[in-house]
Request: fold
Amino acid sequence: MQGRGIHKAMLLLVAGLVMGSLPSFAAIFVQCPGDTNHNAQLDPGEIWPANQKCMHLSAGDGFISMADGHLQYTFGFSDMTGIAENQVANKGLVAANFPAPTIAVDEGDTLYLSLSNVGMVFRPDLFDPHSVHWHGFPDASAIFDGVPDSSATINMGSTFTYFYNVVEPGTYMYHCHVEATEHMQMGMLGNLYVRPQQNGTSAGTCAGGSPCTTFAYNDVNGSTGYDVEFPIQLASFDSYYHDEHLAVQPLPFYAMKDDYAMLNGRGYPDTVVAGALPPPLDENGDPANATAYNPAGTQSQKIDSIITATAGQKVLLRLSNLSVTRFFSIGALGLPFKVVGWNARILRGPDPDGAGPLLGKDLTYDTVSVTLGGGESADVIVDTAGVAPGKYFLYAMDLNYLSNREDDFGGMMTEIVIN
Ligand SMILES: [Cu+2]
Reply:
């Protein structure tokens, strides 16, 4: 039987060669119309279709530094846009970012998002595929949804290009959907939002009594208008689960208990550091060991979470929660919250006659905090007109989350600075 099998395989191979077809292959390969050098970046001399955007992410493993100094092993994505294809398998190694690179696009765009799986260096026993899932987004086709049961997932050493017809504005989030509890707990989470077509028009009232020109949704009347926006992702890690992952121990899925609560991948006081954190060091903070945990020498925590505004501005907080274990209630004492969107939809009832331009019932509400379960998002506008300049705190209302593992006084908190 075995002999016959080999014989048959040989016949197929020969037939394939004779007919000129190639055996299937895996490679880092970016698809982006007009991108002649396949780096997902619009370079001089290239002509791309109107409203087309491209991005290239790698998926792999890496390290981040927690606010108490703990070095934590993670899985994650890294931005390879602009990197030549033949450099991606090198630059993507041990380069996981947390959170993942932000994806911000405009309604009416088409986005070609290439995902390359570069493998997980510190877990060579794993051969896990990865994917990108836009949570809550109305994908036209299941093949681009990233859910393993119904779409493609990407094996090591290969690339898949997702296509998105960006039709619905709102605050979304994205994550890997392969073995989702594990890969999400390990850090494959990112901010994702879509700006509405109404941007660039004038409606409502923003800072200084001027009309707003940027909006969370196509609201017609400017009710979601804002001056400055901040995507803030709530997440949490179980450090013991991560450590056991690195030690190749059986994973305690049943006992997952997150002990780091974070905003955009940081606990306080790292949350108020503007820009990227330095590359992660080892537990002793010894720079000599830095390259062991970050061969590329790049930062792995690039997205800050400090919020700054000028008094009188309307601040849009694009809040999302991608924790796999926890609900979080978040608020800012002394600042008014107006919730204008929930789960990437404007808080408004249907148009009463269905014909437009009448507006549906206003379902926005004022509050001091919002509670988000995993996979939920909220668009909150903080109107700072009449608010005294100074420093305010955005923080988890359940005070047990204000810690960095065993360190008290940290965790899910950042500053809102009104100048
Ligand atoms: Cu994954």
Notes: The two ends are 79 Å apart (CA to CA). The chain has one domain: 52-418. Residues 259 and 405 are 5 Å apart (CA to CA).
